[in-house]
Write a structure and sequence with these properties.
Blueprint lengths: L10 E6 L3 H11 L5 E7 L2 H11 L3 E4 L8 H11 L4 E6 L4 H9 L4 E4 L4 H12 L4 E2 L1 H4 L4 H4 L16 H11 L4 H8 L3 H15 L4 H10 L24
Parallel strand pairs: 1-2, 1-3, 3-4, 4-5, 5-6
Helix pairs in contact: 2-3, 8-10, 8-11, 9-10
């Protein structure tokens, strides 16, 4: 007697990237695998949140640099509106500060756009099963205690996390706003803004406003909007897969 076997449900994926050609390429790559299904694609955080709320996908694949709000903002919102959805950052940004910020905001995986298609597929499958994934290029850059879940702070200065508020201050400084204007917009004192800016410059080794502006432009932060003030801390759960 023959028994029918139930087919394993496909992993449902939503793509968030502000470049149409990137989304098209990702869809083509992902849907070659019969176990994966792209159920939605969006170009902005605001647009994607509506779709994610309705679709409740298994995995959201997002860039960090998006129009309007950033991928960091999206990560926190996904955790709120779709708690069972897992998230992977797919980006060109290999700066450790961004890795730390993304993981602290709730990302389950971090993959560079320079990674292979095979590595991306493994990332999708890993996070869909409740694991965490960092691509090889990122694990090679991180301090050993960051990856090994050492409860002690990293000895490396480069591993110190940048808070979301510090990134907001960076964006405002790059936009040419004065300390008083930034304080007014963020609802804090000028002294607090100055402290955030000093901490940020120290962590990123930026020595003047021109350097801050250059860093913001190179890392796609000039289009972001300040929002919220929660601190992004270094997560204690990063798993590295070979």
């Amino acid at each position: 007697m023959l028994f029918e076997t139930e087919s394993k449900p496909r992993i449902r994926i939503v793509l968030v990237d502000d470049h149409a050609i990137m989304r098209e390429c990702l869809r083509a790559l992902i849907e070659v695998d019969q176990g994966l299904d792209v159920v939605g694609e969006f170009e902005s955080v605001e647009e994607s949140l509506i779709g994610i709320r309705d679709l409740q996908p298994d995995v959201v694949l997002t860039d960090l640099a998006l129009r309007g709000l950033s991928g960091i903002d999206l990560l926190g919102e996904v955790n709120r509106i779709s708690p069972l959805t897992r998230t992977i950052v797919l980006t060109a940004h290999d700066n450790i500060q961004y890795v730390s910020a993304a993981l602290g905001a709730g990302a389950d995986g971090y993959v560079l756009k320079s990674a292979s298609g095979d590595e991306l597929m493994r990332a999708i499958r890993a996070v869909s099963m409740g694991q965490h994934f960092l691509c090889k290029a990122i694990t090679a850059k991180l301090p050993a205690d960051f990856i090994a879940d050492d409860p002690k702070s990293c000895a490396s200065e480069a591993a110190r996390p940048v808070t979301k508020r510090e990134l907001e201050v960076l964006t405002c400084v790059a936009a040419g706003q004065t300390t008083k204007a930034i304080a007014r917009n963020l609802g804090v004192s000028p002294k607090t803004v100055a402290k955030h800016r000093a901490n940020l410059m120290h962590k990123l080794h930026l020595h003047n406003v021109a350097a801050i502006t250059t860093f913001a432009v190179r890392n796609g932060l000039t289009g972001g909007k300040p929002s919220g003030g929660s601190v992004i801390t270094r997560p204690h759960f990063v798993a590295s897969l070979t």
